[in-house]
Amino acid sequence: MITCPICKKKIRKITGTHLSYKHRLNTVEFIKRYPNIDRGMIPWNKGETKFSHPGVLKISKTMTAKSMSNFTNWHKLRRKSLNYAIKKSENLAELIGVILGDGSIEKYPRTQRLWITCDLRNDRYIQHLVNIIKEIFNKRPSLRKKKSQRGYAIDIYLYRCKLSAKLGIHAGNKIKNNVGVPVWIKKNKKFIIKCLKGLFETDGCFHEDKLNYTRTIEFTNFCSHLREDVHSMLKQLGYHPQLGKRYVRLARNKEVYDFKRLINFRNY
Q1: Nearest to 129 by CA among 148, 102, 109
Q2: pLDDT tens, residue by residue, 80-100
Q3: What are phi and psi of 120, to 5 degrees?
Q4: Among 29, 116, 215, 255, fewest CB within 10 Å belongs to which?
Q5: What average pLDDT does range 227-247 have in this prediction?
Q6: Whole-angstrom Cα distance, residue 132 to residue 140?
């Protein structure tokens, strides 16, 4: 029991209703007058249900009649978050290149997961990807360390609904789906450069043979559609790529170094 400091009456709760009807005070005025007793203040409906208090029952009936619930505001915010828009940008083009290379989109009953695996030693590159994902989705991705064949790796992942539709990439196995680069990227030179950067930094390699004076930069992938898209985009930029069964390669020394500078290859 709690003693009301005004009427000295012992009651179970000092409620707003008691203050209003007995003392013509509201809760704020009461707390200002008695600052040290605010811990005894309990909302009138604290611990009550529609089965134990007629006031709560009345509220429940009113909300039912208006097709409302205690989670109405939450549902509105939730619907808004599901219908998010992603602005086409250079960072988005680079992220799509990374996903097509070392990433994937996995489908679940109520959501989808963006998943990218990176070498633990590439800490600057990991932070670079985290910043890009945070900027695009307005949400920081989660990180998880795991063992890999080369030591340790970091998984960067993010859960969001409708990811595949928003990014234009099929969810599931990339090889079975024979994924390719979204059309909007192939229509813009700046987007092409950024997408190629993401692709080559994940599934690409640079080889320099000083003895034979040869340099190559190569993209390796098992998706034929993706290899053809990379070959086509390189030609759009004025290069002369070689297209193989598993690779797309630049072998002219001048083009190799020019392309490395163009995409700022693995420079963090």
Answers
A1: 102
A2: 555 677 889 999 999 999 999
A3: -60, -30
A4: 29
A5: 94
A6: 9
